[in-house]
Amino acid sequence: MAFISIHSNQSNCLWPFALVSIIVVAMGSLSDCYDPLDPNGNITVTFDTYQWEDDGYSAKVTIQNFYQYRHVDQPGWKLGWIWAQNEMIWSMKGAFATKQGNCSSFKSDMLHSCVKDPEILDLMPDSSPDQMTDGCCRGGLLDAWAINPSKSFSSFQLKVGNLQANSFGTAPLNLTLMAPGLGYTCGPLLDVNPTVSLDIGGKRQVQVFRTWKTTCTYSSFIAAKTPVCCVSLSTFYNPTITACPLCSCGCRSADITTEICKRTSSPLTNDVQSDPDVVKCTDHMCPIRVHWHIMSNYVDHWRVKLTVTNYNYHKSFLDWNLLVQHPGFSQRTTIYSFNSTMLPDGFRDEVALFWGIPYVNAELISTTEDELGSVTTEMLLKKDMESFTFSHGWAFPRRLYFNGESCQMPLPDSFPTLPNGAVFIFAQPPHCLFLLLTYLTSQALLVPWL
Ligand SMILES: *[C@@H]1O[C@H](CO)[C@@H](O)[C@H](O)[C@H]1NC(C)=O
Ligand SMILES: *[C@@H]1O[C@H](CO)[C@@H](O)[C@H](O)[C@H]1NC(C)=O
Ligand SMILES: *[C@@H]1O[C@H](CO)[C@@H](O)[C@H](O)[C@H]1NC(C)=O
Ligand SMILES: *[C@@H]1O[C@H](CO)[C@@H](O)[C@H](O)[C@H]1NC(C)=O
């Protein structure tokens, strides 16, 4: 009887290992479309019609990034659509259409754009003040919602003309968002309740005439990006370092003596001095590596050193961010050299988001011949005596994302293991240790009986 109950309880102590294996296997398949770490993430595009003109309307377009940890990087967003009728754009503020097109039928060369499928870009911050509006002109960059909500949107204004007689206008069709490059899919613009805002110091509510809205969601499958990031692990209790999985982001060429490798299949050009595709040659070939090192073990804390290395020779990251999922973040955590926040609950383990501190390590610089570009922090995590253990890979992160892209993890069977014998000293949570002791004691007591 006693035996059976001890056995079943013991298998309870193995759940962290089972969990890690399941999560690692699920990681690849879950990384597309639906993201369990950011289930409500999207970019919302809103057209607010706020004023009628002779044959058209004025509208304010807002692109709001609701993704917690996915930002829109250089060269910024590009918004496109197809006019439902014969609309054209009289003028625009805070952004511009890339093509003016053929406006000759309107007998004016002052029109902004007469193309059927305009493509809109944000202005740069140094544009002349009379072309600017509130919330414009950041070169199309949008910060992640969890990091900097005040810079997570762009807006611009346009005057639309040439509506059909007696028409109140029709929502543009086939909205596309490059942010930047492929990856986002947008639904149709739909009529929703008009946007309401506050006036006169918040005492009066005003509303626009009409609002059209859609959401765009990201899929790494559509973006068809090769992986850009991998994870390596090490600990104070085992001298073995678990490297990034071989060929995580591509395989290096057979010639292992070279220092400079190219990520895409196109051959190395002579212009390696500026080619943005060249990285330092490694066995994983990832431009970004994240290293998780378990530094030390105290009575009620443990310490981790986290390092992000940039192997690009000619590409630095101005606003990098790193997302780490680890159950240890449910406890009080001290982060020394990065800004950080916890994401709202989306999954069973806690998720921490890290980013640089302005003027200190906000920029992850590129690698040079002499030195690797990197940012690093140490962190002190409190132990939850119920769950904390060094065994079965519990202390390693479950998943990591760099700038919103999932990082390739080593398989659990290659994780650094505890030295034999050390297991019973600090590896087991206290209740498991107690069970094991009971088990061993009962074993010993049984021996004379046999
Ligand atoms: C888009 O994100 C916002 C904010 O998280 C959320 O309220 C909204 O429901 C999302 N929309 C969709 C269609 O997921
Ligand atoms: C521009 O549009 C006008 C009127 O629709 C048309 O007559 C003219 O051929 C067009 N020009 C070009 C270059 O397409
Ligand atoms: C707009 O999208 C619909 C559905 O995806 C497609 O059938 C249609 O051809 C598109 N219109 C244009 C003008 O590209
Ligand atoms: C990050 O940390 C720095 C310094 O601690 C602080 O000034 C800054 O406001 C923080 N937040 C952001 C969004 O960078």
Portion of residues within helices: 10-25%
Q: Can you summarize the main beta sheet? A: 7 strands, antiparallel
| CATH class wording of the largest domain | Mainly Beta
The coarse overall form would be elongated
* Integer tally of domains: 2
Beta-strand fraction estimate: 25-35%
What is the string of SSEs from the N terminus onward? HHEEEEEEEEEEEEEHEEEEEEEEEEEEHH
Distance between the termini: 17 Å
Given as residue ranges, the uncertain stretches (5+ residues, pLDDT < 50) are 1-31, 427-450
- Give the tally of β-strands: 25
Output the keywords.
five-stranded mixed beta sheet, disordered N terminus, seven-stranded antiparallel beta sheet, 450 residues, mainly beta, binds 2-acetamido-2-deoxy-beta-D-glucopyranose, Immunoglobulin-like
Give your account of this protein's structure.
With 450 residues, the chain is mainly beta. The protein has two domains: 43-222, Immunoglobulin-like; 227-431, Immunoglobulin-like, CATH 2.60.40.290. A hairpin with a 4-residue loop joins strand 11 and strand 12. Helix 1 (2-12) runs antiparallel to helix 5. It is built from five helices and 25 strands. Helices cover 12% and strands 31% of the residues. Residues 1-31 and 427-450 have low confidence and may be disordered. The strands form six sheets. Strands 1, 2, 4, 7, 9, 10 and 13 form a seven-stranded antiparallel sheet that branches. A five-stranded mixed sheet has the order 14-17-18-23-20, with no helix packed on it. The longest helix is centred in the last third of the chain and has 17 residues, at 430-446. It has helices at 2-12, 15-30, 220-223, 423-427, 430-446; strands spanning 43-52, 57-65, 78-82, 88-93, 95-97, 119-122, 153-161, 173-178, 184-186, 190-192, 196-199, 204-207, 210-218, 229-235, 260-262, 278-280, 288-297, 301-310, 321-325, 333-335, 339-342, 351-355, 373-382, 399-402, 405-406. The radius of gyration is 28 Å and the shape is elongated. It binds 2-acetamido-2-deoxy-beta-D-glucopyranose (4 copies).
